[in-house]
Amino acid sequence: MNPDKCKINPSLPAILIVEDNEEMKDFIGNEAGKLYNIFTASNGEEALFFLNEYCIQLVVSDIMMPVMDGFTLLKRIKTDLEFSHIPVILLTARNTMQARLEGLELGADAYIDKPFSVDILLAQITNLLNNRNSIRQYYFKSPIANMKSIAYTKADEHFLERLNGIIEEHIDNINLDVEMIADRMNLSRPTLYRKINALSNLTPNELIRLTRLKNAAELILKGEMRIYEIAEAVGFNSQSYFSRTFSRQFGMSPTEYAMNNRDKQHAKPG
Q1: Burial profile 211-222: b = 16 or more Cβ within 10 angstroms, e = fewer
Q2: How far is CA 49 from the centre of its chain?
């Protein structure tokens, strides 16, 4: 049940099922396969291969497995920058408080005891994916939402803080691009691209542009600069292009945004 890359439906999330019981693995895979692209592995070591090769968006893993158990896999996922954004649901027959606490301390996003209803599992998968999408949408549409709001783990938060700091340091540079950021973060361009896309569903250049716009919104609220000055300060070489881009992103022009918030700050429309 491990589809070829060209056979994957790009409109569906990719879910990795990690389970050493073949019957259980096939059962979960067949049910979830009606809604998602499904990959399966028999232990944590096999799971790492798929995590490296495919854009997995959620992992469902048993705990008791040979070679590499679910706790070890969970720790690898949550501490590796390449994978730390991926939500993990743990399945276990060990219905003990100690096992549950260990999983949650390692960063498990959900915990389901065996035996379980597959409907409960599917609902949990849907909720995790929908919640993360809602967080992204709020970040996209809110002029004041911080980049850290889309972090899922401490590793993600640290990554986004560094990324945001570099973009803001060079915010007025119209030539700022993924090459420059990758170099300053000591990451390969593919790694940076994959991580940004996994966290935000944006390309690096789209995220740079969004960060410019959010910085512009902050400057508008301060009311110390005119719109054309703000556009230049955040790296736009055309006020008209800046205004159109701002409007498409936040649903209002920079001038309208200033007027809507004039009771909070005295912005100066350009």
Answers
A1: bbbbbbbebbbe
A2: 21
138-179 pLDDT tens trace: 999 999 889 999 998 888 999 999 999 999 999 999 999 999
N-term to C-term CA, the chain: 58
Its domain, for residue 107, covers 5-137
**111 in the same domain as 51:** yes
Asked if 61 and 70 count as a contact pair (C-beta separation under 8 A), the reply is: yes
Note whether 176 and 128 are same-domain residues: no
**Sign for the pseudo-dihedral over CA of 106, 55, 177, 174:** negative
Tokens of 212: 């410019």
Question: Tokens 């936040």 label which residue?
Answer: 250
Q: Is the pLDDT of residue 28 over 70?
A: yes
Separation between Cα atoms, residue 168 and residue 163, nearest integer Å: 9
The answer to whether residues 158 and 109 belong to one domain is no
CA–CA dist 141, 51 (Å, integer): 30
